[in-house]
Design brief:
Helix 7 links the parallel strand 5 and strand 6. Helix 6 runs parallel beside helix 7 (141-153) and helix 7 (141-153) runs antiparallel to helix 12 (340-359). Strands 13-12-11-7-10-9-8-14 form an 8-stranded mixed beta sheet. Strands 3-2-1-4-5-6 form a 6-stranded parallel beta sheet, with helices on both faces. Residues 1-34 have low confidence and may be disordered. It contains 12 helices and 14 strands. It is an alpha/beta fold. Bound molecules: NADPH dihydro-nicotinamide-adenine-dinucleotide phosphate. NADPH dihydro-nicotinamide-adenine-dinucleotide phosphate is lined by residues 44-49, 70-72, 75, 111-114, 116, 134-135, 161, 163, 202, 216. NADPH dihydro-nicotinamide-adenine-dinucleotide phosphate binds at residues 44-49, 70-72, 75, 111-114, 116, 134-135, 161, 163, 202, 216.
Length: 365
Amino acid sequence: MQDLSRRRFMQGAAAAALAAPLVGAAATRARAASPKKLGVALCGLGKLSTDQIAPALLKTQHCRLAGIVTGSGGKVEQWTSKYNLPARSVYTYDTMHRMADNDDIDIVYVVTPNALHLEHTVAAAKAGKHVFCEKPLEISVERCQQMIDACKAADRMLGTAYRCRFEPHHLECIRIARQQELGAVRIIEAGFGIDVGPADQWRLKHSLSGGGALMDVGIYALQATRYLTGEEPVLVSAMETKTDAVKFKEVDETVSWTAQFPGGATAYCTASFKVGGIKNFRATADRGWFELDPAYYYGGIKGVRSDGKPLSFPQVDMFAAELDDFARCVAERRPTIVSGEEGMRDVRIMTAIYESIRTGRAVKI
Ligand code: NDP
């Protein structure tokens, strides 16, 4: 019974995630054989696009890399030759409106600094393209709402790139929690911390990032508490620890927060730009616990259950999985579980967490 319900739960999004990778010549053959693949234009060719998303687009079954948007002319030659992209599918941020004439592009994947997501989403939607946008959706609830409105007005879909929502270990933890297999979840401890690196990057500039550790990595822990409980927190209480007031002058360095959920669960969470190596969640229920550690890395996800039962699945490319799911939602005109509204919910809660830090008081949501 347990195996059957688990199998059912893993169908759908996870099935696409488990597809075998395609590389090189195999990818070219697959592209030629699947004319219905939706075209994705990558907007912002930074580290994530280069190292994760473009390679993932060689493994996807329902979409393919079809264009690029970049402000760096020097990147164009390498990208167009590596991915065999025609010159007409290369855009700058100022020429995105011209995508309206390009039927090769169905979806724009926005992978720019957080506070540019609104501008690039609006441009893509106005050009008639669906938008998949990196996390956090934007830096304020108002700006998220403008993105949602722009996509609605253009009758285009908006998705938030929450890759863990398509990862089998996470899906299994959601199943264990929601089906109360170990009883009702009472306590969730979740944290993600990285050593953020050099001081001269956009992640440490408030105008581009909207915040530090919480916005960048804390959002994974926040998401986990929400998708495990299936509920929205009603009260948050938070504090920040700053040990380097120069480097972290504009943004938060280490944030810890507690959150109360209406069903009786309490979450204890941490986000850090200083302390690397925090990367897990553990959910403690009435009759046991289950955890993922690491939970949020691009690979190597590991799970443990207190009752010794396995919590182990094949590793998947989460970027390929989330892109395939979004492409299928677009093609089948059905809603995505990682909608713009879902992205906005996290921004609303993070705003409350910052308010709690600022005021020193618990904040009702
Ligand atoms: P990078 O700094 O590596 O790349 C950002 C790219 O955005 C730049 O290379 C540049 O591309 C473009 N850009 C446009 N305007 C600016 C500007 N004013 N300043 C800096 N860059 C600009 O960032 P990441 O790729 O790491 O992050 C991009 C987004 O992806 C963020 O929203 C981040 O939160 C998210 N992210 C998500 C991850 C996940 O696991 N889902 C992991 C890492 C990041 P070009 O030169 O082509 O114009």
